[in-house]
Amino acid sequence: MADKSELSMKVDIDVSGAITGLKAVQREAKEAICLLKELEGQQVKNKEQAINNFVVHVMGDDIKKMSKELADKLRESGCDI
């Protein structure tokens, strides 16, 4: 039967380069997240602007008509516009 023996070994590994690389990746990831949040904000702004443009385009004639009618009624009541 084989004799049981113990083996011990000491290993020194320099991981400073790996840690530096991981920190760089972390910085880049944080920057990417910030840029994505900024992009999302712009998309929300653009979406709101598109909705506003659509509403003005679709309702523009109705709003103009209502404004004209209101102005006419104010003039009839003696208000100077």
In short:
This protein is mostly helical and 81 residues long.
Which word captures the global form?
rod-shaped
The mean pLDDT is 86
Q: What is the element string, with H for helices and E for strands?
A: H
Q: What is the count of β-strands?
A: 0
Low-confidence spans: none
Characterize the largest beta sheet: strand count, sense, and whether it forms a barrel. Answer: none
- Classify the beta-strand content into a percent band: under 5%
Radius of gyration: 35 Å
Helicity level: over 70%
Instruction: Give the end-to-end Cα distance, rounded to a whole number of Å.
Output: 112 Å
Structural class: mainly alpha
Number of helices: 1
Can you characterise this structure?
There is one protein chain. The protein is 75% helix and 0% strand. It has one helix at residues 16-76. The N and C termini lie far apart (112 Å). The model has no long low-confidence stretch (mean pLDDT 86).
Keywords:
1 helix, 81 residues, mainly alpha, 75% helix, single chain
SSE layout and pairing:
Elements: H1 16-76
